[in-house]
């Protein structure tokens, strides 16, 4: 078996312990008990996966522009003084001045002059351009067309949680990752009161979204759906399990191969199943946790989510405190990227090279936004080309004029 970009090491002092698993009871007696922890004994050395890092890099410019747009749209009247936005550069991870950013990405904003206070001087403000406003209308249309998908995602997020209720703050923080619209609490939740109930005090950090009705149709994971489809196509019952997608690069030691094999042979535990009876430190709970992480990444727009965002749901989904180690320990299922100084969990099977295989319908919003950006970039490139050509012509004319002056000077000198 080959594992790409990951090295596995075992710290156990019993190299043959994995071979004894099935005959484990015969080694027990009243005077001696062998302590066997197949999870914590495994240590993993992380290594880079260049292709999946490239997938994240490809979206870097788009995400930066989206953050700046969001900042402006969240302002009262959707307008902000340019200097106020400049003060937010560090938080927005913007490494150039806002004026430079605007020049590099034309078509996003219009600049106009206004007063911050009635008697203050006029200063430059930014507001959405007509082009950006057209995109926002298109975004709303795509959300309306895929409202059933959004509802099912929100239900699934609640159905996997321990008590079928999640803090609103957590959901708002993760809404972009899962494709939830900005106004989902105002427009979507009240509209689907048969599924959702908002409780607590919104705006005070103490509000919660509660699941009202359990829909069995939503209680099937991507892995279970895939097994059913394969069973239907082949006529043979297919057992739900994880796909191990291992790029070339590193081989597993014998004990690790056996551990992976035995772990995969454990029954798949649906992320929607009640696991209150399972020990938090058991291998079964590990398998269930991996199932939840797999499902969460499958529900995300880009099949990847920053680890800190997933960490906000540790209590809701009964993750262990060291849950992030699962992304390297199960490197045939996940990849944990460190691109941009942020840990990002990536679902390997969702990518072919650096491209998504199956795109979420809500990614149409991203595609439209990228079209808007690329239109502006093309206009800027054309403007720079024209400017360079003009400079070149001016230089040629100046050189010709200087040549004529030189000839005239020589003729006068001869006289």
TrEMBL record:
Coiled coil: none annotated. Residues 48-377 form the PORR domain. One of its GO terms (molecular function) is RNA binding. It comes from the Eukaryota. InterPro entries: PORR_domain, PORR_fam. PANTHER family: PROTEIN WHAT'S THIS FACTOR 1 HOMOLOG, CHLOROPLASTIC, UBIQUITIN CARBOXYL-TERMINAL HYDROLASE FAMILY PROTEIN. This is PORR domain-containing protein. It comes from Gossypium tomentosum. The lineage of its organism: Eukaryota, Viridiplantae, Streptophyta, Embryophyta, Tracheophyta.
């Amino acid at each position: 078996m080959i594992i790409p970009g990951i090295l596995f090491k075992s710290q156990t002092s019993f190299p043959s312990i994995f071979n004894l698993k099935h005959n484990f009871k015969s080694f027990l007696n009243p005077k001696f008990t062998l302590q066997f922890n197949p999870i914590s004994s495994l240590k993993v050395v992380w290594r880079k996966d260049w292709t999946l890092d490239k997938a994240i890099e490809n979206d870097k410019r788009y995400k930066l522009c989206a953050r700046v747009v969001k900042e402006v749209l969240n302002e009262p009247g959707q307008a902000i003084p340019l200097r106020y936005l400049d003060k937010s550069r560090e938080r927005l991870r913007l490494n150039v001045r806002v004026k430079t950013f605007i020049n590099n990405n034309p078509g996003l904003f219009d600049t106009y002059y206004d007063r911050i206070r009635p008697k203050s001087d006029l200063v430059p403000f930014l507001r959405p351009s007509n082009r950006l406003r057209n995109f926002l209308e298109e975004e709303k249309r795509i959300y309306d067309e895929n409202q059933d998908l959004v509802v099912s995602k929100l239900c699934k997020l609640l159905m996997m949680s321990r008590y079928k209720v999640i803090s609103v703050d957590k959901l708002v923080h993760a809404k972009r990752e899962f494709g939830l619209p900005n106004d989902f609490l105002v427009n979507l939740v009240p509209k689907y009161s048969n599924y959702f109930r908002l409780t607590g005090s919104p705006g005070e950090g103490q509000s919660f979204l509660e699941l009202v009705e359990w829909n069995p149709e939503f209680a099937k994971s991507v892995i279970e759906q895939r097994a059913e489809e394969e069973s239907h196509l082949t006529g043979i019952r297919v057992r739900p399990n994880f796909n191990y997608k291992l790029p070339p690069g590193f081989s597993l030691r014998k004990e690790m191969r056996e551990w992976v094999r035995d772990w995969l042979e454990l029954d798949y535990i649906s992320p929607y199943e009640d696991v209150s009876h399972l020990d938090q430190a058991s291998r079964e709970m590990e398998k269930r946790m991996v199932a939840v992480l797999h499902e969460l990444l499958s529900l995300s727009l880009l099949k990847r989510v920053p680890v800190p965002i997933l960490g906000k749901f540790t209590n809701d989904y009964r993750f262990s405190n060291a849950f992030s180690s699962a992304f390297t320990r199960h490197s045939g299922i996940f990849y944990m990227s460190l691109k941009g100084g942020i840990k990002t969990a990536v679902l390997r099977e969702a990518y072919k090279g650096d491209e998504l295989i199956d795109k979420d319908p809500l990614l149409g919003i991203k595609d439209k936004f990228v079209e808007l950006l690329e239109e502006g970039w093309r206009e800027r490139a054309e403007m720079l080309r024209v400017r360079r050509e003009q400079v070149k012509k001016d230089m040629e004319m100046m050189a010709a004029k200087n040549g004529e002056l030189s000839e005239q000077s020589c003729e006068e000198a001869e006289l």
